Amino acid sequence: MKKKNSFIAGVCLAFCLLVTGCAQSPAASESVPPLSETPGSAAVSSDTSEMPSAPAQESSSQPETPQESSQEPVFSGASSVYFTEDISAQGLVKLYDALGWTPQGNTAVKISTGEPPASNYLRPELIGDLVKKVDGTIVECNTAYGGSRASSAMHRQVAEDHGFTPIADFDLMDEDGEVEWPMTGGTRLDRVIVGSHAENYSDWVILSHFKGHAMAGFGGAIKNVGIGISSPSGKVYVHTAGTKTSGSIWYSDQDSWLEALAEMVSGFSAHVGREHIIYINVMNRLSVDCDCDGNPAEPDMHDIGILASTDPVALDQACVDLVYQAPDSESLVRRIERQNGIHTLEHAEEIGLGSRTYELVKLDG
After folding, report:
1. CB 350 within 8 A of CB 343
2. Which domain holds residue 335?
3. Whether the Cβ atoms of residue 199 and residue 137 lie closer than 8 Å to each other
4. What is the pLDDT of residues 287-309, one digit of tens each?
5. Is 16 inside a domain boundary?
6. CB-based contact 148:116 (threshold 8 Å)
7. Is residue 145 in some structural domain?
Protein backbone atom coordinates (compact mmCIF):
# COMPACT_ATOMS: atom_id res chain seq x y z
CA MET A 1 0.00 0.00 0.00
CA LYS A 2 2.88 2.35 0.77
CA LYS A 3 4.37 1.83 -2.72
CA LYS A 4 0.95 2.33 -4.33
CA ASN A 5 0.41 5.62 -2.48
CA SER A 6 3.91 6.78 -3.41
CA PHE A 7 3.30 6.01 -7.06
CA ILE A 8 -0.06 7.88 -7.08
CA ALA A 9 1.56 10.86 -5.42
CA GLY A 10 4.35 10.86 -7.99
CA VAL A 11 1.92 10.79 -10.89
CA CYS A 12 -0.10 13.65 -9.39
CA LEU A 13 3.05 15.69 -8.95
CA ALA A 14 4.09 15.07 -12.56
CA PHE A 15 0.64 16.10 -13.81
CA CYS A 16 0.71 19.33 -11.85
CA LEU A 17 4.15 20.20 -13.16
CA LEU A 18 3.12 19.51 -16.73
CA VAL A 19 0.00 21.66 -16.45
CA THR A 20 1.83 24.59 -14.91
CA GLY A 21 4.77 24.25 -17.31
CA CYS A 22 7.16 24.29 -14.34
CA ALA A 23 8.81 20.86 -14.52
CA GLN A 24 11.92 21.11 -12.40
CA SER A 25 15.24 21.52 -14.17
CA PRO A 26 18.21 19.38 -13.13
CA ALA A 27 19.87 22.66 -12.13
CA ALA A 28 17.45 23.04 -9.26
CA SER A 29 18.56 19.87 -7.48
CA GLU A 30 20.82 16.85 -7.88
CA SER A 31 18.26 15.04 -10.03
CA VAL A 32 14.83 15.62 -11.53
CA PRO A 33 12.10 14.29 -9.21
CA PRO A 34 11.23 10.72 -10.31
CA LEU A 35 7.72 9.87 -11.42
CA SER A 36 7.99 6.42 -9.85
CA GLU A 37 10.01 4.59 -7.25
CA THR A 38 11.93 2.58 -9.83
CA PRO A 39 15.47 4.03 -9.95
CA GLY A 40 17.49 4.51 -13.10
CA SER A 41 20.69 2.52 -13.57
CA ALA A 42 23.87 3.94 -12.09
CA ALA A 43 26.43 5.34 -14.50
CA VAL A 44 30.13 5.25 -13.67
CA SER A 45 32.49 7.80 -15.22
CA SER A 46 36.07 6.92 -16.05
CA ASP A 47 37.20 9.83 -13.88
CA THR A 48 35.28 8.29 -10.94
CA SER A 49 32.58 10.98 -10.88
CA GLU A 50 29.04 9.65 -10.64
CA MET A 51 26.38 10.55 -13.18
CA PRO A 52 22.80 9.86 -11.99
CA SER A 53 20.47 8.33 -14.54
CA ALA A 54 17.14 9.81 -15.50
CA PRO A 55 14.23 8.40 -13.51
CA ALA A 56 12.72 5.20 -14.82
CA GLN A 57 8.93 5.16 -14.96
CA GLU A 58 6.45 2.42 -14.16
CA SER A 59 4.38 0.90 -16.92
CA SER A 60 1.42 -1.41 -16.83
CA SER A 61 3.18 -3.59 -19.38
CA GLN A 62 6.13 -4.57 -17.14
CA PRO A 63 6.78 -5.38 -13.46
CA GLU A 64 6.74 -2.63 -10.83
CA THR A 65 10.41 -3.19 -10.02
CA PRO A 66 13.24 -4.94 -11.86
CA GLN A 67 13.55 -7.44 -9.00
CA GLU A 68 10.06 -8.77 -9.74
CA SER A 69 10.90 -9.62 -13.35
CA SER A 70 11.21 -13.34 -14.11
CA GLN A 71 13.55 -12.67 -17.02
CA GLU A 72 17.25 -13.21 -16.37
CA PRO A 73 19.47 -10.22 -17.18
CA VAL A 74 21.43 -10.65 -20.39
CA PHE A 75 24.15 -8.12 -19.58
CA SER A 76 26.33 -7.88 -16.51
CA GLY A 77 28.73 -5.09 -15.69
CA ALA A 78 28.91 -1.73 -17.42
CA SER A 79 29.12 -1.02 -21.15
CA SER A 80 31.72 1.51 -22.28
CA VAL A 81 30.45 4.80 -23.69
CA TYR A 82 33.09 7.14 -25.11
CA PHE A 83 32.60 10.90 -24.86
CA THR A 84 34.15 14.05 -26.28
CA GLU A 85 33.02 17.66 -26.08
CA ASP A 86 34.69 18.30 -29.45
CA ILE A 87 31.77 18.51 -31.90
CA SER A 88 33.83 18.61 -35.09
CA ALA A 89 34.83 16.33 -37.93
CA GLN A 90 38.08 15.63 -36.06
CA GLY A 91 36.27 14.92 -32.81
CA LEU A 92 33.93 12.50 -34.56
CA VAL A 93 36.82 10.55 -36.08
CA LYS A 94 38.66 10.51 -32.73
CA LEU A 95 35.60 9.02 -31.08
CA TYR A 96 35.28 6.40 -33.81
CA ASP A 97 38.94 5.43 -33.40
CA ALA A 98 38.42 5.00 -29.65
CA LEU A 99 35.93 2.20 -30.31
CA GLY A 100 38.64 0.08 -31.97
CA TRP A 101 36.14 -1.20 -34.54
CA THR A 102 36.93 -1.94 -38.18
CA PRO A 103 34.27 -2.86 -40.75
CA GLN A 104 34.78 -6.12 -42.59
CA GLY A 105 32.70 -5.54 -45.71
CA ASN A 106 30.18 -3.16 -47.26
CA THR A 107 29.48 -0.46 -44.67
CA ALA A 108 26.20 1.42 -44.27
CA VAL A 109 26.20 4.77 -42.47
CA LYS A 110 22.63 5.37 -41.27
CA ILE A 111 21.77 9.03 -40.83
CA SER A 112 18.65 11.15 -41.06
CA THR A 113 18.67 13.28 -44.19
CA GLY A 114 16.45 15.81 -42.39
CA GLU A 115 13.10 17.26 -43.39
CA PRO A 116 13.24 20.59 -45.26
CA PRO A 117 13.35 23.48 -44.86
CA ALA A 118 15.07 23.99 -41.51
CA SER A 119 15.65 20.76 -39.56
CA ASN A 120 18.73 20.09 -37.44
CA TYR A 121 20.15 17.10 -39.36
CA LEU A 122 23.87 16.36 -39.02
CA ARG A 123 25.70 18.47 -41.58
CA PRO A 124 27.89 16.86 -44.27
CA GLU A 125 30.93 18.89 -43.20
CA LEU A 126 30.66 17.29 -39.75
CA ILE A 127 30.23 13.67 -40.82
CA GLY A 128 32.09 13.59 -44.15
CA ASP A 129 35.52 12.57 -42.84
CA LEU A 130 34.08 9.65 -40.86
CA VAL A 131 31.96 8.44 -43.78
CA LYS A 132 35.06 8.43 -46.01
CA LYS A 133 37.20 6.74 -43.34
CA VAL A 134 34.87 3.72 -43.23
CA ASP A 135 34.30 3.86 -47.01
CA GLY A 136 30.62 4.02 -46.18
CA THR A 137 27.42 4.39 -48.13
CA ILE A 138 24.89 6.77 -46.60
CA VAL A 139 21.59 4.92 -46.23
CA GLU A 140 18.02 5.95 -45.48
CA CYS A 141 14.43 4.80 -45.99
CA ASN A 142 11.42 6.79 -47.13
CA THR A 143 8.96 8.14 -44.59
CA ALA A 144 5.49 6.82 -43.75
CA TYR A 145 3.89 10.18 -42.95
CA GLY A 146 4.26 12.26 -46.10
CA GLY A 147 6.55 15.26 -46.29
CA SER A 148 9.46 15.83 -48.66
CA ARG A 149 10.96 12.36 -48.18
CA ALA A 150 7.94 10.14 -48.78
CA SER A 151 8.95 9.13 -52.31
CA SER A 152 12.32 8.08 -53.65
CA ALA A 153 12.56 10.91 -56.18
CA MET A 154 11.80 13.60 -53.61
CA HIS A 155 14.02 11.98 -51.01
CA ARG A 156 16.97 11.82 -53.38
CA GLN A 157 16.51 15.52 -54.08
CA VAL A 158 16.58 16.27 -50.36
CA ALA A 159 19.78 14.25 -49.94
CA GLU A 160 21.35 16.25 -52.75
CA ASP A 161 20.07 19.60 -51.47
CA HIS A 162 21.38 18.85 -47.99
CA GLY A 163 24.82 18.03 -49.31
CA PHE A 164 25.05 14.29 -48.71
CA THR A 165 25.44 13.01 -52.27
CA PRO A 166 28.77 14.82 -52.84
CA ILE A 167 30.43 13.11 -49.85
CA ALA A 168 29.35 9.49 -50.42
CA ASP A 169 27.10 7.14 -52.37
CA PHE A 170 23.49 7.45 -51.22
CA ASP A 171 21.15 4.46 -51.01
CA LEU A 172 17.41 4.51 -50.34
CA MET A 173 17.12 1.01 -48.97
CA ASP A 174 13.39 0.59 -49.64
CA GLU A 175 13.54 1.86 -53.23
CA ASP A 176 13.21 -1.71 -54.56
CA GLY A 177 10.94 -3.06 -51.86
CA GLU A 178 11.34 -4.55 -48.42
CA VAL A 179 12.32 -7.73 -46.60
CA GLU A 180 11.33 -9.22 -43.28
CA TRP A 181 13.76 -10.44 -40.64
CA PRO A 182 12.65 -12.45 -37.58
CA MET A 183 12.26 -10.93 -34.13
CA THR A 184 12.17 -13.20 -31.08
CA GLY A 185 12.08 -12.58 -27.35
CA GLY A 186 9.77 -9.58 -27.45
CA THR A 187 6.12 -8.95 -26.62
CA ARG A 188 5.04 -6.64 -29.47
CA LEU A 189 6.78 -7.71 -32.69
CA ASP A 190 7.49 -11.06 -34.33
CA ARG A 191 9.48 -9.60 -37.23
CA VAL A 192 11.15 -6.44 -38.45
CA ILE A 193 10.42 -4.99 -41.88
CA VAL A 194 13.34 -3.19 -43.51
CA GLY A 195 14.28 -1.85 -46.91
CA SER A 196 15.48 -4.69 -49.12
CA HIS A 197 18.86 -3.04 -49.74
CA ALA A 198 19.68 -3.55 -46.05
CA GLU A 199 20.80 -7.03 -47.03
CA ASN A 200 23.62 -5.51 -49.12
CA TYR A 201 25.56 -4.35 -46.05
CA SER A 202 27.56 -6.40 -43.59
CA ASP A 203 28.58 -3.56 -41.27
CA TRP A 204 26.71 -0.57 -39.89
CA VAL A 205 27.57 2.81 -38.43
CA ILE A 206 24.44 4.20 -36.77
CA LEU A 207 25.18 7.93 -36.80
CA SER A 208 22.42 9.78 -34.97
CA HIS A 209 21.56 13.32 -33.98
CA PHE A 210 20.35 13.12 -30.40
CA LYS A 211 17.41 15.48 -29.71
CA GLY A 212 13.82 15.51 -28.54
CA HIS A 213 10.97 13.80 -30.35
CA ALA A 214 7.24 14.51 -30.37
CA MET A 215 6.25 10.84 -30.24
CA ALA A 216 9.18 9.01 -28.60
CA GLY A 217 10.25 11.75 -26.18
CA PHE A 218 13.78 11.64 -27.51
CA GLY A 219 15.52 10.36 -30.60
CA GLY A 220 18.95 8.74 -30.54
CA ALA A 221 20.51 5.47 -31.65
CA ILE A 222 17.47 3.28 -30.95
CA LYS A 223 15.11 5.62 -32.77
CA ASN A 224 17.49 5.96 -35.76
CA VAL A 225 17.41 2.19 -36.23
CA GLY A 226 13.91 1.31 -35.07
CA ILE A 227 12.16 3.77 -37.37
CA GLY A 228 14.96 4.89 -39.68
CA ILE A 229 15.90 1.46 -41.06
CA SER A 230 12.29 0.28 -41.24
CA SER A 231 10.59 0.56 -44.62
CA PRO A 232 7.42 2.70 -44.67
CA SER A 233 5.23 -0.30 -43.85
CA GLY A 234 7.78 -1.33 -41.22
CA LYS A 235 7.53 2.13 -39.71
CA VAL A 236 3.75 1.75 -39.37
CA TYR A 237 4.30 -1.73 -37.90
CA VAL A 238 6.59 -0.34 -35.19
CA HIS A 239 4.56 2.80 -34.48
CA THR A 240 1.41 0.70 -33.98
CA ALA A 241 3.13 -1.91 -31.81
CA GLY A 242 2.87 -4.67 -34.39
CA THR A 243 -0.85 -4.27 -35.06
CA LYS A 244 -0.79 -3.17 -38.71
CA THR A 245 1.50 -2.31 -41.64
CA SER A 246 -0.48 0.38 -43.42
CA GLY A 247 -2.41 3.51 -42.57
CA SER A 248 -1.73 6.07 -39.88
CA ILE A 249 1.36 5.87 -37.65
CA TRP A 250 -0.57 7.30 -34.69
CA TYR A 251 -1.29 4.82 -31.91
CA SER A 252 -3.01 5.31 -28.57
CA ASP A 253 -0.93 2.94 -26.43
CA GLN A 254 2.26 4.92 -25.81
CA ASP A 255 4.23 2.33 -23.84
CA SER A 256 3.41 -0.44 -26.31
CA TRP A 257 4.84 1.43 -29.28
CA LEU A 258 7.95 2.36 -27.30
CA GLU A 259 8.41 -1.33 -26.57
CA ALA A 260 8.02 -2.13 -30.26
CA LEU A 261 10.68 0.48 -31.03
CA ALA A 262 13.19 -1.34 -28.81
CA GLU A 263 12.17 -4.72 -30.22
CA MET A 264 12.77 -3.65 -33.80
CA VAL A 265 16.37 -2.74 -32.90
CA SER A 266 16.78 -6.08 -31.13
CA GLY A 267 15.65 -7.93 -34.26
CA PHE A 268 17.96 -5.85 -36.44
CA SER A 269 20.92 -6.43 -34.12
CA ALA A 270 20.31 -10.17 -33.93
CA HIS A 271 20.13 -10.48 -37.72
CA VAL A 272 23.18 -8.33 -38.50
CA GLY A 273 25.25 -9.40 -35.48
CA ARG A 274 26.23 -7.11 -32.59
CA GLU A 275 29.87 -7.15 -33.62
CA HIS A 276 28.97 -5.58 -36.97
CA ILE A 277 27.29 -2.45 -35.55
CA ILE A 278 28.55 0.69 -33.81
CA TYR A 279 26.46 3.60 -32.57
CA ILE A 280 27.39 7.29 -32.42
CA ASN A 281 25.19 10.10 -31.06
CA VAL A 282 25.90 13.78 -31.69
CA MET A 283 24.43 16.04 -29.00
CA ASN A 284 24.19 19.41 -30.74
CA ARG A 285 21.23 21.61 -31.69
CA LEU A 286 19.25 19.97 -28.88
CA SER A 287 15.74 20.96 -29.92
CA VAL A 288 12.71 19.32 -28.36
CA ASP A 289 11.72 18.39 -31.93
CA CYS A 290 13.24 15.78 -34.21
CA ASP A 291 14.90 16.08 -37.62
CA CYS A 292 11.67 14.84 -39.21
CA ASP A 293 10.23 18.26 -38.33
CA GLY A 294 11.05 20.79 -41.02
CA ASN A 295 10.43 23.70 -38.64
CA PRO A 296 11.60 22.52 -35.22
CA ALA A 297 11.60 24.57 -32.05
CA GLU A 298 14.82 26.52 -31.60
CA PRO A 299 17.09 24.79 -29.05
CA ASP A 300 17.13 26.52 -25.67
CA MET A 301 20.04 24.57 -24.19
CA HIS A 302 23.75 24.32 -24.97
CA ASP A 303 25.48 21.71 -27.12
CA ILE A 304 27.01 18.85 -25.11
CA GLY A 305 29.29 16.66 -27.25
CA ILE A 306 29.55 13.36 -29.13
CA LEU A 307 29.18 9.89 -27.61
CA ALA A 308 29.82 6.42 -29.05
CA SER A 309 29.39 2.80 -28.00
CA THR A 310 28.76 -0.70 -29.26
CA ASP A 311 25.74 -0.79 -26.91
CA PRO A 312 22.81 1.36 -28.11
CA VAL A 313 21.00 1.19 -24.78
CA ALA A 314 24.01 2.41 -22.80
CA LEU A 315 24.62 5.12 -25.39
CA ASP A 316 21.09 6.52 -25.34
CA GLN A 317 20.98 6.26 -21.53
CA ALA A 318 24.22 8.23 -21.24
CA CYS A 319 22.82 10.94 -23.51
CA VAL A 320 19.62 11.16 -21.49
CA ASP A 321 21.66 11.40 -18.29
CA LEU A 322 23.74 14.25 -19.72
CA VAL A 323 20.53 16.08 -20.59
CA TYR A 324 19.24 15.64 -17.03
CA GLN A 325 22.54 16.95 -15.67
CA ALA A 326 22.52 20.06 -17.85
CA PRO A 327 21.45 23.29 -16.14
CA ASP A 328 19.41 24.49 -19.13
CA SER A 329 17.58 21.33 -20.18
CA GLU A 330 14.14 21.94 -18.69
CA SER A 331 12.29 21.93 -22.03
CA LEU A 332 13.89 18.73 -23.27
CA VAL A 333 13.39 16.97 -19.92
CA ARG A 334 9.69 17.85 -20.07
CA ARG A 335 9.46 16.45 -23.60
CA ILE A 336 11.13 13.17 -22.58
CA GLU A 337 8.89 12.75 -19.55
CA ARG A 338 5.72 13.77 -21.38
CA GLN A 339 6.14 10.79 -23.70
CA ASN A 340 7.56 8.43 -21.04
CA GLY A 341 10.62 8.14 -23.28
CA ILE A 342 12.68 6.30 -20.66
CA HIS A 343 10.42 3.29 -21.11
CA THR A 344 12.11 2.52 -24.43
CA LEU A 345 15.38 1.99 -22.56
CA GLU A 346 13.70 0.03 -19.79
CA HIS A 347 12.21 -2.43 -22.26
CA ALA A 348 15.37 -2.54 -24.39
CA GLU A 349 17.36 -3.66 -21.36
CA GLU A 350 14.68 -6.14 -20.35
CA ILE A 351 14.78 -7.93 -23.72
CA GLY A 352 18.58 -8.02 -23.79
CA LEU A 353 19.37 -5.35 -26.37
CA GLY A 354 21.88 -3.66 -24.04
CA SER A 355 22.57 -2.31 -20.58
CA ARG A 356 21.50 0.96 -18.96
CA THR A 357 24.58 0.72 -16.73
CA TYR A 358 27.69 2.10 -18.37
CA GLU A 359 31.15 3.57 -17.88
CA LEU A 360 31.60 7.01 -19.39
CA VAL A 361 35.09 7.21 -20.90
CA LYS A 362 36.08 10.85 -21.42
CA LEU A 363 38.54 11.45 -24.25
CA ASP A 364 39.20 15.14 -23.57
CA GLY A 365 42.20 16.34 -21.57
Report:
1. no
2. 39-65+75-362
3. no
4. 999 999 999 999 999 999 999 99
5. no
6. yes
7. yes
